[in-house]
Amino acid sequence: MSSGISRKYLVTGGAGYVGSVVAAHLLAAGHTVTVLDDLSTGHRDGVPEGAGLIEGRVQDAARWLDPSYDAVLHFAAFSQVGESVAAPEAYWRNNVGGTLELLAAMRGAGVRTLVFSSTAATYGEPASVPITEEAPTRPTNPYGATKLAVDHMITGECAAHGLAAVSLRYFNVAGAYGPYGERHDPESHLIPLVLRVALGEREAVSVHGDDYPTPDGTCVRDYLHVADLAGAHLLALGAARPGTHLICNLGNGNGFSVREVIETARKVTGHPIPETAGPRRPGDPAVLVASAERARDLLGWRPERPDLAGIIADAWDFARHGRATG
Questions:
Q1: Strand 256-257 and strand 220-221: pairing?
Q2: Which of 139, 143, 71 is nearest to 102 (CA)?
C-alpha cells in the first residue's frame, strides 16, 4: 500500500504488538519510520528492520520530535484492563499524562498530524450492538476511561490548535504478521492464552465468567486481524484534516464468544485445549461488536482477513515458529 510519496513518521510504542505491525506496513509503503519506545512492555526485536529506534519515554518526546516529521502514530499506552483496575494511577499517569506531553511536543515542533490508538473500551457496556461511534461512552474500567480522556484531549487540541487527528477505536486485535505477534507479559488476551495451552505451556484456559447474557454465557468479542488494523492506520494518515478529530471504530462486525474461540482453536491446532471455569474479570462488558461503517465510508477501509480460523491460524504459526506464514 504505497502512495508514491515517502514521508517520515514517529511511531510511539512501535516495539509493541500493534505498533510494530503498523511500523512494518509504513516501511513497506516506502516511508521513513522512527520508533519511540521505552521497552517497558515492548520488545527490541519487535522494531522492524529499517526503522530507527529511540529508547525513551513518550513523556520526553520533545527531546526528539522536530519539524522533519510529517506525523505521529501513537501506541505508547498501558493496555491491560485488570491491571488498570488494580493500579489506576499508573494508567492515568502514563496514558493521559504521556499523551499530554506528546501533544505539547508536537505543537512545539510544528508536527500537525496524529493517528491515535484508541479502544472500544471507551464505550463500556453498550446499550445496543453493533456499536457505532455515536454510542454513549461509559467506560467500565480505568483503561477505557484514560483512552476516552485522551480522545477528549485530542478533540480540544484540534479545535484550538489546528491538529489533524484520527482516533481508531479497536475492538479485539489478534493474529500475527510475519515476525510480529502478541508477546504480552503478563498475557491476558484470550487467543494467545488458548494457544499456550495447545503448546503445553499451560494446563488449561480459564473462562472468566459463564453467566453473561449471551447465547452460551461467555463474553462475545469482535476479532480483527492485526494486518487489517495496520492498513487502517495508513488510510487514516491520508484522511486526517486540520482542525478535525475523526473517530472511527475498527472491527469485523461479527462477534464470537469465548467458547467459540476455544472451539475454533481446537480445530486449528488439533489439540484438545482443556478449559476451567473462573470468575468474571472486573470491568468486562458482555458483548463488544463493532460497526465499522464510518471507517469504510471515510477511510475506504475494509477488513481483508475476517475469518476467525484464519486469524487463529496466523497466531498459531507465530506461537510455534515466531512467524506467521499465512
A1: antiparallel
A2: 71
Q: Would you state the pLDDT for residue 287?
A: 87
136, burial (CB in 10 Å: exposed 0-12, middle 13-18, buried 19+)? exposed
Q: 311, 189, 317: which is closest to 252 by C-alpha?
A: 311
Q: What is the rounded CA–CA span in Å between residue 150 and residue 146?
A: 6
Query: Nearest Cα to 133, choosing from 250, 21, 47?
Result: 250
Decide: pTM greater than 0.90. Answer: yes
DSSP string over 253-305? S--EEHHHHHHHHHHHH-----EEEEPPPTT--SEE-B--HHIIIII----S-
Helix (H, G, I), strand (E, B) or coil at 186: coil
User: How far apart are alpha carbons 198 and 101 in whole angstroms?
Assistant: 42
Q: Are 233 and 7 in contact (CB under 8 A)?
A: no
Provide φ and ψ at 198, rounded to 5°: -60, -30
188-212: b or e for each residue (b if 16 or more CB lie within 10 Å)?
ebbbbbbbbbbeeebeebbbbbbeb
pLDDT at 1: 42
Active site residue 177: no
**Interval 203-221 mean pLDDT:** 94
CA atoms of 274 and 256, how far apart (whole Å): 19
The span from the CA of 2 to the CA of 9, in Å, is 14
Nearest to 6, CA basis, from 34, 27, 37, 36:
27
Set 123, 143, 177, 212: catalytic member = 143
Within 98-203, residue ranges assigned H as helices are: 98-109, 142-161, 190-198
Give the distance between the most distant pair of CA atoms in the chain.
56
Locate cell 485522551: which residue? 150
Rounded Cα gap, residues 314 and 257, in angstroms: 19
- CA-closest candidate to residue 152, choices 86, 69, 95: 95
**pLDDT(326) > 90:** no
Query: What separation in angstroms does the CA of 325 have from each of 178, 310, 314, 320?
Result: 6, 11, 7, 11
